[in-house]
Amino acid sequence: MARHDWWGVVLEAPDPHALARFYSELLGWEIAKEDADEAALTPPEGVAYLAIQRADDYVPPVWPAREGAQRITMHLDFEVTDLGAAVAHALHLGAREADHQPQDNVRVLLDPAGHPFCLYADSGDGGDGGDGEDE
Predict the structure, then answer these.
(1) pLDDT in tens, 17-69
(2) What's the predicted TM-score (pTM) here?
(3) SS3 helix, strand, coil % of the chain, rounded to 5?
(4) Going by DSSP bridges, is the β-strand pair 96-97/76-79 parallel, antiparallel, or unpaired?
(5) Which is the most buried residue in 80, 82, 89, 107, by most CB within 10 A?
(6) For residue 5, what are the CA distances in angstroms to 21, 48, 64, 90?
(7) Where do the domains of the chain lie, and which CATH numbers do they carry?
(8) How many CB atoms lie within 10 A of CB 23?
């Protein structure tokens, strides 16, 4: 059987370079590749990547879901040690806090292109806390 490794996640955005800078600052990841239509970030350790590719017709999803609106097909979860500080940092970089917040230990934010992502602090209950879909 051929080897199949997970490479990472690719987001679409009208300005891949601006979104790459946002996630680079948010996560402390290096922008490892940039060309006219895409950028890729790599973490200090590990093999997962986050890539952003140009999509001139990109339509941001709506969260929570609303009838007739563009639905979320995925979201990113990032565990943090200090939820308040991490949220403040993300907001400073240009993220927006979603109106609906499902859990006390999770904050749903929208990146500058409108992609939802969750910052969460481990609640100690064994769950990841980062679902963002719970109500």
Answers:
(1) 999 999 999 999 999 999 999 999 999 887 778 899 999 988 888 878 788 88
(2) 0.79
(3) 15, 30, 55
(4) unpaired
(5) 107
(6) 26, 10, 32, 30
(7) 1-58 (3.10.180.10), 60-135 (3.10.180.10)
(8) 23
